[in-house]
Amino acid sequence: MDKVLIANRGEIALRIIRTCHEMGLKTVAVFSTADRDSLHVRFADEAVCIGPPPSRESYLRIDRIMAAAEVTGADAIHPGYGFLAENADFSAICHDHGIKFIGPPAGTIQMMGNKTLAKETMRKAGVPVVPGSDGVVEDAKEGRRVAAEIGYPVIVKARSGGGGRGMRIVNSEKEFKSQFDTARNEAEAAFGDGGVYIEKFVSSPRHVEIQLLGDGRGAVKHYGERECSIQRRHQKLVEESPSPIVNDDLRRRMGEAAVRGAQDVQYEGAGTIEFLVDADLNFYFMEMNTRIQVEHPVTEEVADCDLVQFQILIAMGETLSDKPAVMDGHAIECRINAENPFKNFSPSPGRIETFHTPGGHGVRVDTHVYAGYVIPSYYDSMIAKLIVRAKSRDLAINKMVRALDEFIIEGVETTIPFHRQLMLDERFRAGDFDTKFLETFKLKASD
C-alpha cells in the first residue's frame, strides 16, 4: 500500500490524512465544489474534485470516486464514516478493481447492515439480544401479534439505515397501526427499504458501545466501552470512556460478548458493537457499525493508541497481537456543531469570523475549519470535536469546562453553550442519566 484515497470530507478526512502521512503513505483527497477550501483538501498530497455540493452528486458517487483513484494511482481507499463507509457495493467494487478497501469485505457489511440478520447472527453467537420479532414484520396484523407476545411498549425499527429514521415507539395496541405505518413509510422514503421489525422497548436505557478491532483471520480485540447516552433525536452529542455505569464485571461480560460476535463473522478492521444497558445492568445487542466512529478519539485517549493506524495496518495484512488493551484515565468528547441550541438546535451555516481552539495538557481538537472558513449548508453541522483526558471523570469534566471556556467561535452559532451547561449539571456530573436525559434537561436562556 503506497497511496490512500480518502472517500470523505471534513475532520475525519483530515484525521485519516494525518495518520497516513505519519506512516509514510501518500494521500488523495476528493472534494465537492463546496469543500474546495477545506483543510483536508489543502493537506492531502493530491486532490480531485468529484462534483457539485449535493452528496448524491459527489461524495455518494462511487463512479467518480473510483475514477479519482484510477487517475491518481491510489491503491487503497479509506471511507471514513458516513457517506459510503458502510456501503457493501462500494467495498465490492474496490475489491473487483484491485483497490484495497480499508474496512470489512462486502459480505460482512451487508450482513451487519441488515439489522434483522445482524440480530440473528449475534443471537447465534451467544450475544444477548432484545426480545422481538423473528425478522421483518410484513403487516400491522402480524405486528400486533408480536407486540402482544412480548408486551408493550415496543419499538418498530427500520431494517436498514439509522439515525432514528423509520423508528417509532408504540405504547399500546390502540396506536399500533398508525405508528407501524409511519415507521414503514419513513424507512421507505429514507432508505428505499420499507422493511421493519419489532423489539421490546427497553425503558430508561443507557447506550454503551464496545470498540473492536479484527484482523479478518479470527483474532479480535476490544478496547473497552464508550458511553453514548447523551443524545438528541438519536444523534449523539457527548461520548466518554469509560462509562460511569459500567463496573469491571459488566465490562468483562460485554467485552467478551462483543468479541464473540465479531469473531463469528471473521471481522476485519475497526468496528463497534452497540448495546442497550438497562437499570439492572442487563445488556442487549442493538447494532454493529462496520466503520470507524465519530467518537473514536475518546478510546484513543484512554488506550493511548491510533485506531486509524490499526485500520490501515490490518488492511496491509498485519495480524493482531494477543496482548490485551490497557485503558487508563477518563476521556470525554463534545461534538461542536454549527447549530443554535437556544433555537431548537437550528443549523447555523455561514462564515466563521474568529476561531480560537483551547489547549493545554490533555486537550485535543479535531477539526477541518478555521477563521474565514465558510460552513456549507449541504452537510452535517459538526465543525469540531473537543476531546479531553484526565485521571478521573470528575477531573475530565472540569477540564472540559475550562476547554469550552477557551473555545471561541464567532460568526456562527455553535453548541458550545449547551455543552458547558451540560458539564455543570449535577445529574450529569453524578452519572445519573440515560438516553432520554435531554428531554428533561433545561437549557438556560443564556450562558
List keywords for this structure.
single chain; alpha+beta; Rossmann fold; Dna Ligase, domain 1; D-amino Acid Aminotransferase, Chain A, domain 1; 3 domains; five-stranded parallel beta sheet; 15 helices; 22 strands; 33% helix
Structure report:
There is one protein chain. By secondary structure, the chain is an alpha+beta fold. The protein has 3 domains: 100 residues, Rossmann fold, CATH 3.40.50; 70 residues, ATP-grasp fold, A domain (Dna Ligase, domain 1); 235 residues, ATP-grasp fold, B domain (D-amino Acid Aminotransferase, Chain A, domain 1, 2-Layer Sandwich), CATH 3.30.470.20. It is built from 15 helices and 22 strands. The chain has an 8-stranded antiparallel β-sheet, with helices on both faces. The protein has a 5-stranded parallel β-sheet with strand order 3-2-1-4-5. The longest helix has 17 residues. The chain is globular, with a radius of gyration of 21 Å. The termini are far apart.
